[in-house]
Amino acid sequence: MFPVLYKEVKKMATNLIKSKTPPNKRKIFFVKRETLDGWLFVLPVVILTLVFLIGPILVAFMLSFKEYSFLDAGTMFDAKWVGLSNYTDIFKDKIFRKALLNTSIYSLGVVPIQLTLALSLALVVNSKIKGKSFFRTAYYIPTQTSTVAVAVMFLFIFKSDGLLNKFLGIFGLPAYSWLNDVRFALPSIMTMAIWSSIGLYMVIFLAGLQEIPDSLYEAANIDGANKWQSFWFVTFPMLKETFFFNLVVSMIGTFQVFDQAYIVSNGNGGPLNSTMTMVLYLYRTGFREFKMGYASAIAFVLAIIIFILTLVQKKLFGEENQM
Questions:
Q1: CA atoms of 323 and 304, how far apart (whole Å)
Q2: Which of 282, 131, 257 is nearest to 194 (CA)?
Q3: Structure confidence at residue 27 (pLDDT)
Q4: What is the dihedral sign for C-alpha 201, 205, 206, 211?
């Protein structure tokens, strides 16, 4: 369809050039043709966005006000309308509150450590050391590894007879069942997430560091600034935009954690819901208990929480970045 239409437009343009059409009309025609060409180029993306992004969001928003299950005989449009009941029930749900608490603890634990280590590694690989290309690659490789593979690897590390307990046994320390203990299950997943993702943020910080002019460090050196003062008064202020970007992306990623919690707990969020996250609870509600209306409401509550957190971060960092 598109090639045929394009050929027709090209033919019309050729005929117009050969004819004695006034220049003004030719200009109008070519402006319209450029507009048509632009829409033809973006049309596939527009269609895909409407079908696979905007469409599902609108359907999920509609379902969040209904009581619907895949097991129902009728369609989603025939489902019972319950209004705001799904949203009010969420905050009465003990498991949801536990999932929100776990996700918040996970985010508050992972994000600061993640960004601090990533910035430290970026400073190391940006310095004048031998083999820094190797270190850049070595730190970045875990980010390209499947989260499922990483989770399985950490299962072998944290299991009762795993590598961690064997290492602790060298010092005479007792073995723990890390992933089956309420105290250690969530921190174990946090450790896994930090290890597997710092490489990504390191690369982004590294790009920001390489954009800082050397003249600023030379001026600081002339003024007698030491390395710590150069970092605090030159490097960190120049990295605020990069830091803000990493902070927002990291916060959103931690609130959407699913893979690690699912694999470690076999999809149950155990032990005793200690690894139950919001997205895992959303999945279990929608695809195991088949409460699609309630699951859709959870999804929009999560979206609102992430949106509010992003606005707060924008308020704290964004205004300064625009100066």
A1: 28
A2: 257
A3: 57
A4: positive
- Burial class (CB within 10 angstroms; exposed 0-12, middle 13-18, buried 19+) of 269: buried
| C-beta of residue 105 within 8 angstroms of C-beta of residue 183 | no
Please determine, looking at this structure, whether the domain spanning 86-321 carries the CATH number 1.10.3720.10: yes
DSSP H helical ranges for the chain: 2-18, 23-49, 55-63, 85-90, 94-126, 132-140, 147-158, 163-170, 185-210, 214-222, 227-230, 236-238, 240-255, 259-265, 278-287, 292-313, 319-321
Contacts of 50 (CB under 8 A, 6+ apart): none
CA gap 282, 297 in Å, rounded: 9
- Per the CB < 8 A criterion, the answer to whether 299 and 60 are in contact is yes
CB 87 within 8 A of CB 64: yes
The span from the CA of 9 to the CA of 255, in Å, is 49
pTM as predicted: 0.83
Token pair listed for 117: 């280590």
Domain ranges of the chain: 2-63, 86-321
DSSP secondary structure code for residue 281 in this structure: H
Least confident of 32-36, 146-150, 251-255: 32-36
User: What digits encode the pLDDT tens for the residues 55-103?
Assistant: 999 999 999 999 888 777 677 777 888 889 999 999 899 999 999 999 9
Q: How does the average pLDDT of the chain come out, rounded?
A: 85
Q: Closest Cα partner for 69 from 299, 298, 291, 296?
A: 291
Residue 228, number of CB atoms within 10 A of its CB = 8
Give the strand pairing for 66-67 and 80-81.
antiparallel
- What local confidence, expressed as pLDDT, does residue 323 receive? 40
